[in-house]
Design brief:
The structure holds two protein chains of two kinds.
Chain A: H1 7-38, H2 55-63, H3 66-97, H4 103-115, H5 118-132, H6 138-162, H7 166-174, H8 179-208, H9 211-216, H10 224-233, H11 240-264, H12 267-271
Helix pairs in contact in A: 1-11, 2-11, 3-6, 3-8, 4-6, 6-8, 7-8, 8-11, 10-11
Chain B: H1 18-24, H2 29-32, H3 35-56, H4 66-73, H5 75-106, H6 113-137, H7 143-150, H8 164-187, H9 192-200, H10 205-233, H11 237-241, H12 252-261, H13 266-290
């Protein structure tokens, strides 16, 4: 490693770290503001609120029907994880193991929904879903959320499957395993860490997926993040602390899964799989 | 479902049958496993896009181009392109300029996991929560203004929410970590031996960056810029909650949303979405085309 010891290099390093610390401080202060406000009795024009209470959580729970919203959120996320796992892993297996005409085109088809922002393809998608009557329903929300997650699982799983030696499968075949047995007893145990990582990432991304859910959700099929948006949008109707309490519930829901996910995956994977693209 | 077709010897005296000929080209039962996902993507991604494109040429009233004519005749609509670019281009460039020196510093750290985990926070929490948090934090009574006033830097609170700067701050706080993590993955992908060779030959830090790293990283920066830019260009929740959605932060996604869900004119909404896609595509293509001007070749050693 090269060490620079000149004064300029030290000043530069200090400036870089100062910015990082400034950024992280602001980030935590922003989160801290929301948490503090959600426990505040009254907070106007002072550093800290006048008193502390937990009653905003009870009022948020009943005002925003958080029980129902959380239930819908977990149902949507659970189904999205399950379906994108089944569709994504099988397709990734085919793409990792076979070379066939049109494979590059197929890869492009799976890459595009990850590169195009959800609001751009979400509006035509919502239009189609409204015309088929699926929008506003629970299944419409699930279908819309699957559009970016299925390709995501495919792109995460392909390199993972490629690194498994095909000789293992050949050996299982020699000993008379059929495709189903091969999958259950050989592939699944080997692929489990990769599948787990991919599905955890899908889970974290789906909880926070605002645009697609927002465009197709009806009153009974809102997820937590959409309910939070409507609450902030209509601020003034409810107490600020009540909205903040809901934001804390959302944060806790997301952060639990983020902590679980970080045990299994590299943080950079949460951002994107851009490195897998032909960048050079 | 047998995937063993490839290994079955040709029983047919007349040569390989159709199944075997297809298998030789890579098309067998295993390949068919990709069909459900492909059909799904066709039905829910390609079809809606094609449908939206056709629908945008079938306006409620007027000729087939009247949606686009209306968009480019009405300043309330066509100005959204400029407003979105005026927001997304500076933020993307700033994020990239901040991310590069920090990535170069962080690459030398042995334990990057904690920092990357902290930076992944705002991305995971999402734009809605960041907007809600910044509304409190940057507000006139928030901790940010309060701290600046305590240090005597300002005499009265800065107006940072419900205007351009609120949206700018939210794009910075969610966009910077995204840009940084991408940049870091490109920077760590370059073999340190190249830098060591330059240092041995007497290049100082700036020369090593300018003549060794920068040419190798340009393609990666181009990709990072494109991905960060399309994220910033499609800003929606924070532009509504944290900005002035009727004024300076009336971005193009707000125009598309209002056409679809306030005027119920899906044809117009599709037209706006298509214009949004075309502008994004134009910038991305322009940036990626300029990649051809730079070095393209192996830059990584052990790490790929």
């Amino acid at each position: 490693m090269i060490r620079d010891t000149t004064l300029g290099a030290k000043l530069w390093a200090t400036a870089v770290w100062a910015f990082v610390i400034f950024f992280v401080l602001n980030l935590f202060a922003m989160i801290g503001t929301v948490v503090t406000s959600s426990f505040a009795t009254r907070w106007l024009g002072t550093w800290l609120p006048a008193g502390w209470t937990t009653r905003w959580y009870y009022s948020a729970w009943s005002e925003f029907q958080l029980g129902d919203v959380l239930l819908v959120t977990f149902q949507v996320v659970g189904l999205v994880v399950l379906i994108s796992g089944v569709l994504g892993v099988t397709a990734a297996y085919a793409l990792a193991r076979r070379d066939f005409p049109g494979k590059r085109l197929l890869m492009l088809l799976f890459l595009l929904p990850l590169l195009i922002p959800p609001i751009t393809f979400g509006i035509p998608l919502a239009t189609v879903l409204y015309q088929t009557g699926l929008a506003g329903t629970f299944w419409g929300v699930v279908a819309a959320n699957l559009v970016p997650t299925v390709p995501f699982v495919i792109l995460v799983m392909i390199p993972f499957i490629e690194q498994i030696d095909p000789k293992l499968e050949a050996a299982a075949r020699v000993f008379g395993a059929n495709t189903f047995k091969l999958f259950i007893h050989v592939l699944l145990p080997l692929l489990l860490p990769g599948i787990l990582a991919a599905l955890l990432l899908v889970l974290v991304r789906t909880i926070a997926m605002f645009e697609l859910t927002f465009l197709v959700a009806g009153p009974t099929s809102q997820t937590l993040v959409v309910a939070l948006y409507y609450a902030v949008f209509a601020a003034g109707v409810r107490a600020v602390q009540s909205i903040d309490a809901m934001a804390v519930v959302y944060m806790v829901t997301t952060l639990i899964w983020l902590v679980v996910a970080l045990r299994f995956v590299n943080p950079a994977q949460i951002v994107t799989r851009a490195k897998q693209q032909p960048a050079h | 479902m047998t995937a063993s077709v490839t290994t079955t010897p040709a029983r047919d005296a007349y040569g390989p049958n159709l199944r075997q000929r297809l298998a030789a080209r890579g098309l067998d039962a295993v390949t068919l496993l990709a069909v459900p996902a492909a059909l799904f993507s066709l039905a829910l991604f390609v079809y809606p896009f094609a449908f939206g494109l056709v629908l945008s040429f079938e306006p409620k009233a007027g000729g087939w181009l009247s949606n686009y004519q209306r968009f480019f005749a009405d300043p309330f609509l066509y100005e959204t392109i400029g407003k979105t670019l005026w927001l997304s281009l500076p933020v993307t460039l700033l994020n990239l300029f901040l991310a590069v020196p920090i990535a170069f510093r962080v690459r030398l750290m042995r334990n990057q996991r904690l920092l990357t985990a902290i930076l992944v926070l705002p991305i995971t929490l999402g734009t809605v929560l960041v907007a809600e948090g910044l509304l409190n934090y940057l507000g006139p009574q928030g901790w940010f203004n309060r701290t600046l006033m305590t240090f005597g830097l300002i005499s009265q609170p800065l107006k940072l929410v419900h205007n351009y700067w609120g949206v700018f701050a939210s794009l910075l706080i969610t966009g910077f970590p995204f840009t940084f993590l991408l940049t870091l993955s490109y920077v760590t992908g370059i073999d340190p031996a190249l830098e060591q060779a330059a240092a041995t030959l007497g290049a100082n830090a700036w020369q090593r960056f300018r003549h060794v790293y920068l040419p190798l990283l340009m393609p990666g920066f181009a990709i990072t810029f494109c991905l960060s830019f399309v994220q910033a260009f499609s800003v929606f929740p924070s532009a509504v909650l944290l900005g002035a959605p009727a004024g300076p932060t009336r971005v193009i996604s707000i125009a598309a949303y209002q056409a679809a869900f306030e005027e119920y004119d899906y044809s117009m909404a599709s037209a706006v979405a298509m214009i949004m896609g075309v502008v994004q595509l134009a910038i991305v293509v322009a940036v990626l085309a300029s990649r051809g001007l730079f070095y393209r070749g192996p830059a990584s050693g052990a790490k790929g």
